Model the fold of this input.
Amino acid sequence: MLAMALLEGAVAIESDDHILRARRTAATTRVTVGLGGITLILVQPSLLAHPALGIAGFTTIALTALVQLWAPRMRWLRIEESLAGAAAILIIGLQDQRVTALSLLWLAAIGSGVMARGGRVHWIGRTVVLTALALPVIRQGQLSAEHVALCLASLGLLLTSGRLTRELNHLLRQARHDAENAETLLLAGDIASRVAKRSDAACVRETGQSEDPLSAEEKLLAEEALARFIAGDGLAMAVQPIVDVHTGSVHAYEALARFAGSTEGPLHWFSMAAALGKRDALERACLRAALHLFGQRPSGVSLSVNLSAPVLLDPLTLEMLDEQRDLRGLIVEITEETLVQSATELRSVIAPLQERGACLAVDDMGAGYSGLRQITTVHPSYLKLDRSLISDIDHDSDRAALVGALVGYSKQVGSLLVAEGIEYSAELRVLGDLGVPLAQGYYTGRPGRPWPDVRVAWPSAEPDRTLLALDTTTPAGVATAGSLLPV
Done:
């Protein structure tokens, strides 16, 4: 009851929670030891040569719990340490050299105090304890084997508990430091991505461009075209290589939708589908075409497919993926924008897919959606940097610094970093120097018909800003991206 009362009345002044918890635990230990020692002496006074001194000693130990709880600063715990040493004189120093259960209780109190002080043992408290151990020997003029064992146990406890506690505190401080670095990195990524997009947003505001609403006839034509594409008529899949920066070989291909008979690009049709409420159906049609390619991909490479998080969570999409027994080599790309609202729900859906071999990639990382915190929730295998962070990186030290930090972050969380939108050899060289392992963009290969074999030559020591400085070989009889549809 006394221990509970002390704990309920404690005021938390320490800034470190783990130190405060250690002090509370030590205080409870001190009260328990004090009451236990007093009870043992009252029940069996013969345990000590001078029982009254022993009761005074264990009462002092119990009272040190008040100092453990209410000392406003760590250095005030020297008072507790000195009081514990004084109790040692009453319990050990002024008694005979017998080792009993009371001696072991005293050792428990000493050890708990060392841990509560963060492993620190002040010279005053240490001196008092050593004096208490030496007094019986000085008074009696002899040293018993029992007392030798008690002295060795006391010294060993002071040394080992102090060192172990200091090492644990060091690990805790390092863990907090790493966590703060990761938190700072995520925040810096959010800020930098907003800055990277600011110029584009400013251009839109200055020009005042906005899409005109569709007329009834245009809406009808758009609905008819989307219906054909969703049925698979006119929908084709191009692939763009994702290249290993250091070997120049293809690591994976990304499947990209192309729409025949239209001068508009894919973004137009996906935006149109969203406006007409058909975005989910169009995404699933593209997934169906991509999964057809998945079974035909070259050996040793993966295929990446794009899905928004809400579509991936849809049962119809999961049924399509369930039809593929083996998902090894499939990479599901989710845009950072849609990840923001769905990160927690995605965990339960992604886990079964990952068990069957699928990998998760977060696309458009750093595109300004402030979703970097959600990335840590889904544990992706790939992090794809948005083009806004890559463009002109050879002339922008701020972008280079951010990408370099994200390289370290990706290694820490076990993800592969992919740089998107590389158009010049100079950009590729900077990314390689920063340690980015994978690259994707017009420089490493334009989207084309499956499956071009791409070998990228490492840029020279003085890279220029040459576009498409690469050797791309396309199998005979296979059309190029230009003959498929405009990119």
Remarks:
- Residues 216-484 form a domain with the TIM Barrel fold (CATH 3.20.20.450).
- The mean pLDDT is 74.
- The CA atoms of residues 253 and 427 lie 21 Å apart.
